[in-house]
Every structure is written in C-alpha cells, then in structure tokens.
Amino acid sequence: MIALVLDSLARLRTEISACTRCARLVRCREQAADEPPRRFANATYWARAVPGFGDPRARLLVVGLAPAANGGNRTGRVFTGDRSGDWLYAALHRAGFANQPTSVARDDGLVLHGAYVTTVVRCAPPANKPSPIERDRCLPFLVRELRALGRVRAIVALGAFAWDGALRALRELGHEVPAPRPAFGHGASVRIGPYTLVGSYHVSQQNTFTGRLTVAMLDAVFAAAGRAASGGSA
C-alpha cells in the first residue's frame, strides 16, 4: 500500500513542478527569481510550482495559501527558507511531527513524522493574492494529495484562503460540507467525512510580528489537530 502512495505522490510532484497553466503566476514566480532581494542575490531559485512535502503515512495535513516568492519559490520546498516556515516547522517540531525546528533548504535534513505540508495554490502569486481562477486550476492537486494520503484524519488550514480551499477539496472528494458553510476562525473546528478541519491564523509575519498569532495559540491548534489525527476529538 505504501508503495502505491509513494508512486502517486511522486507522479503528482512531477506534474505539479511542470505546471505552467497560469501565465500570471508563472510571470510572478520567474520575476522573483530574476529580481531577488540583495540577501538572495546569489541564490539559484526553484521558480516553478511547488509540490507538497512530508510523510506518506501522514495523519495530519497542513494547508497554506501558496509558496512565498523568496521562500518556497526559491528553495523548492513549501514553507522553507522564510519566516512563516520558521514558525510552522518549529510548531510541528514541538508537537512531535518534525525531527527539527528549522527548515532552510530542501537538503537540510528535515523529516516530518505523521504530517504532510502543502498549499492550495502552487506558485507564488502577486501580493499573495491568487485569483479565483488560479485557485480553481490548482485545486485538483490538493484533491489528489488528499486522495493519495489515505491516512489523513486532521487538516490544519493556515488562514481563511486555505480553509476555503480545504472545504472545496473535501467537497470535490464527495464529502458533504455542512450548511451554513463553516466559518473560518482561529481554533475553529468542523468534522467533514472522516476529517477534522481545524483553522489557524496564517503564520505570516503580519500575524506573528503583531502578536495576532502567538506561539501558545499555534501550539494549541496543533495539539487539537494531533488529538483528532489520533482518533480523538479536537
């Protein structure tokens, strides 16, 4: 069974990395590589769509908005090489899902245990704002990841965009989304099919620098998601 999962994820990663369906996003990701900030002037950018990353046996799926222009778009691994990733992987480490608290490059030794990290949109969008059309073109990738990761039981959505994307993906998988549609909020939780969806403020600097999202708040989300992933209640 695990061999089939590995094969499905490998094929999906290859397909995602080669995707050029959204001309605006292709321009954005390539422009970031052509005009890097001074601190990355000598870096070789990935500058392609960024696939998910993690444990094929994952019971927890973490979903973000999109790769950062000088983070995942540079390193080729989601939430790697930027401040958002510093917060995310440190939290996953504290919760027992990662072997180390930092993520700076694809070959830095980071290993996830029981968790998989992905995004709704796979290319760095201008101003971090994908269009609905761009979201819808990318959404099948998230649906296929969920289908391949058959052990996932908890999903953490980082921000309202990821919450919306997760609900759309679950509906595409044939699961009934409650009406009225569950509203996003930090710590919000809803059971949909075999999954528990948990909301968290995004780990972006606009939330972490201002104190809107604290370490304790993020740890509480992953504690709840960890319980749900293990078969308990969030």
What would you say this structure looks like, in words?
- The chain is of the alpha/beta class and 234 residues long.
- The chain has a single domain, classed as Uracil-DNA Glycosylase, subunit E (3-Layer(aba) Sandwich).
- The chain is built from eight helices and six strands, in the order H-H-E-E-H-H-E-H-E-H-E-E-H-H.
- Strands 1-3-2-4-6-5 form a six-stranded mixed β-sheet, sandwiched between helices.
Shape: globular
Number of alpha- plus pi-helical segments: 8
Total individual domains: 1
- Kindly provide the name of the CATH class: Alpha Beta
Radius of gyration from CA coordinates: 16 Å
N-to-C SSE string, H for helix and E for strand:
HHEEHHEHEHEEHH
Main beta-sheet annotation: 6 strands, mixed
Give me the CATH fold name: Uracil-DNA Glycosylase, subunit E
Task: List its traits.
Uracil-DNA Glycosylase, subunit E; six-stranded mixed beta sheet; 234 residues; alpha/beta
TL;DR of this structure?
α1 (2-17) packs antiparallel against α5 (132-148) and α4 (83-94) packs across α8 (215-229).
Layout of helices and strands, plus pairs?
Elements: H1 2-17, H2 23-34, E1 53-54, E2 60-64, H3 72-75, H4 83-94, E3 115-119, H5 132-148, E4 154-158, H6 160-172, E5 189-192, E6 195-200, H7 205-208, H8 215-229
Helix pairs in contact: 1-5, 4-8, 5-6
